[in-house]
Dihydroxyacetone kinase
Amino acid sequence: MPQVPQTFDALAVRTWCGLALQALGRARAEIDAINVYPVADGDTGTNLYLTVESAATAVEAVFAGHDAMGAVGGTSDAASAGPGRPTLADAVQAMAHGALIGARGNSGTILAQLLRGMAQVLAADSETAHTDGQGLRLALRHAADSAREAVAHPVEGTVLTVASAAADAATGAEDGCGSVARAAYEGACAALAATPGQLAVLRRAGVVDAGGRGLVAVLAALVQTFTGEAPGASGAVVHARVDDEAAAGRPDAGECGDGPPAEGGPAFEVIYLLEADDAAVGRLRSRLDGLGESLVVVGGDGLWNVHVHVDDAGAAVEAGVEAGRPYRIRITHFAAGDVHTGGAGRPPREPAQRAVVAVVPGEGLAGLYAEAGATTVLARAGEPPVSGELVDAVRRAHAREVVLLPNDAELRHTAAAAAEQARTEGVRVALIPTRSAVQGIAALAVHEPERRFDEDVVAMTSAAGATRYAEVAVAERQSWTMAGICQAGDVLGLIEDDVAVIGSDVTETAEIILDRMLAAGGEMVTLVLGDEAPESIAAHLESRVRESYLAVDTVVYRGGRQGPLLLIGVE
């Protein structure tokens, strides 16, 4: 048997993360298949895997950094004491931070809080070391309690129940990390097997809770970390499917908590990272709780991960803007075939036939695109998404065919790399080289999922190509442009990415740009206003179009904090 750690140290954290990632990788498809709560969207296993992958990557980065320090300082063995080896606090804090920023979905967000809760105990400054079995007991207890506190309306029969049972079982275990981990695992398995009796939706589907099943896999990896052996199934039930007769007669969820939401639940899942203080997050919780359900807010120390299911995705994001600085915003439209918990007697949905994934520059447009059925990736000024974020969005779209709209000329290669990766995963992807969000709006307007894929792509490409685009922005520095030298603070009017006008007034510059674009003809003008645009600019431009260009319609959208003051599209 290989040597295993006897105490919870940095190497144990590294080993645990690696083994947990492997375990979730093996169980990923199984967990996806039994995902019926809170929404039967078949992605819990994937979300948990991606969350732990982010945690493991962060831990590896800490070790790599200390290895480099050790090499400089003459320490060649990363496992030895000295500058080449991170402390337990370094490792668990990296694990918690990685999980927080990489959390996906409802269960992934809760798992991130479980890991954060453990890290708070294991990394605590105190006279008593928290590296032994007693420390692990305390960590599991704090993890379960803090995760429950992070959920607005805890429901029994979920991963929260399994986490609490694991902590309860660990309380009476013998000393030693291995014994405590095994007791927690066996307690979690027993609680998992009982989940169908606590949630009617699980009993009807004949499955255990998917999030709880994932936590059991993570705890099995913890046992293997401290014993060198993966626990077998003899000690408790680990199987995904359960016997309907065994679950018969057990109480429904209504006797154990809030119970599931009614059938036909919210249309969107909204997730974002948020930089905000504790007081603002308290207000945000109350605001989001009134907007939707499945609310989970985890984190602390100024950085939070927010997850909620809502009908008004834009309002959920706007609430985050009021609280602080939201970023990495992900809005997923639940397809019509999704089963919200009130009516989840059906199996998890099959992948949709077709979906649209779009990069958008502002929160308002993210809501607009999501309402049209698109899965969105938010791109802030100076923070363009990487290909991995686009691949993740394609996965979240959960479709056999995906139309990808980068909406930025500079993202074309990034989007192409993401499309190629998605194709290796069996998804048919068409990349439409949209260079502006207004071109994406035009493409989305003619999107018809019932058409043949090639015909739909051709129609969307044609609509995007027939849309000229422009923007009005403020110069950040002095620079040479096609229209001359601009100074910081000048108002720039850009047509097709080239500066055409340098002005001092936003409305005047926008009018000049609009006139130049309509001089070549047009049937529809699209205006997307940023938060910093003058209040009167939309009415002024609409009046200009109405009075000077017959038979040209105008539509106005609020883009939020989108970078440019104004986006203009002319079809």
Notes: The two ends are 70 Å apart (CA to CA). The CA atoms of residues 63 and 490 lie 47 Å apart. The longest strand covers residues 292-300.
